[in-house]
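Quick illustration, no need to memorize.
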Amino acid sequence: MKVQAQAYTFLLTTVLLLISGLRVHAVHYDHSVTTECLVEPKRAQYGGGIMVNPGFDQSLRGWTVNGKGVIEERISKEGNRFIVARNRTHPLDSFSQRIQLEKAKLYSFSAWVQLSEGTEIVSVVVRTNRSELVRGGHVIAQHGCWTLLKGGIVANFSSSAEILFESQNTEVELWVDSISLQPFTKTEWRSHQDYNIERVRKRNVRLQILHTNETALEGTTVLINQTRPGFPFGCSINHHILTSKDYQNWFASRFKYTTFTNEMKWYSTEIKQGEENYTIADAMLEFTKQHNIRVRGHNIFWDNPTQQPIWVKSLSSEELRKAAEKRLNSVVSRYKGELIAWDVVNEDLHFSFFEDKLGQNASAEYYSKAYKLDQKPIMFMNEFNAIEYSGDQAVIPEKYKKKLEEILSYPGSEGISVGIGLQGHFVSGQPNLAYMRCVLDSLATTNLPIWLTEVSVDKGPNQEDHLEDILREAYAHPAVEGIITFSGPAIAGFKDMQLVDENFHNTPVGDVVDKLLNEWKSESVQAKADSTGFVDVSLFHGDYDVTIIHPLTKSSTKLNLSVKKHAPQDIVQVHV
């Protein structure tokens, strides 16, 4: 018997969403992810969507064998029916169902999987009518309980296709149940984003204007102007900003958050062993201080062996240990209290330079030591391909979570603040927003801050449209707490993601960034208090200057207002 989903899981639920003045009838997107391995699987999300016989209540109807091997239906002791693939000889030997994809639609996938023995990665694969294999999601499945596999694909053309399952270990049987594939139109997908933005990026604020004798002051004019965004949406900078006044003015007029592309990295600050030089990084940090711009530290170490200072590559293990200790103490102590985040060991899921040289706990040790030196910044993992490429099994959510557990469980790491950094370097072409959303859903279960740290899109047709799609998807997701793009002006050497040309005129990509910066902040508000003295407004999170103008004397009262995501927003009473 399948377990009924939680009440908050909206299966085949429809909602009316107000979008740009139009009422859009859309299937509600289900963000829920079950991280526990369950004795019995839950029912299929969205009732299975377009899948035929998703819960195998009709034996194997709609399902056929893929490749060699045998498929069969089994029934658990509790009476639950599921499909099994056995006697497999190829990773894709499993079961399949033919579906019809529609161009431009986004498809959310889910299934519950189990193995006959051991622990292995199981993937969902879509085989197009051109025999192209598109991997849409992965999970680490195990024996003895059911694990949720959640994923997604975007259809670039209309055609028939097949849903398959893949496991590299052909010795194990694949057990699968409660399979769902739910299509969404672009309009529906955008409606989910707009709904979430209203829900998680804004708050209703109520001001009450009163006389000093506590009676309501009707007709008072209230002016509200946003002075700083509450959501960090920033852009990288590099050393060229130190020598270009135009670059400085352009950047400071737009952004309040940044990351230095290379200037804090080890290979920049210690080109020769023992000769540290922080001159450029110090000057860039001074610029950010002057303009009240907050900085993410990038990075203390990089686990990629090709991205070390040249002299580091020839060090013995003991020499490396001493050099790395010196590096960590130097850079973290130098910028103590100045940064909001550190990328501690960059890309330590894809690479293992320090682990190979110093032992498997090297990364965890550096997170712990960095935190002890400076407890202000959040200590981030920072990886590529987690959201931008669905075929990379090195950075699936379960592996991210496992690495985070290793960091947090390392002796001395109690109380450390860690975060999830997703670089977001997308190739040209349509991004797989359905996969991106499901990864964010899964990582959100950690309850840790998630940032997109280095967003870029390669040059190609519709680059600006794809960038906007990615930024909207990230901003709308409730778990994302910040976005930094790796982009900038042409004079600074940015080639793929130029926001402005040599004359600081916007490129199409720059137009997108400016549009979203303006869209995601509150316009200036002018309102009149009603007969009870109240003014009600909906505001984006952030800091505001509020001016209250007395209806008779025209005298003004000023105050600062901070609209935050988590802080209780009671009635703000103002006496004039």
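The mean pLDDT is 95.
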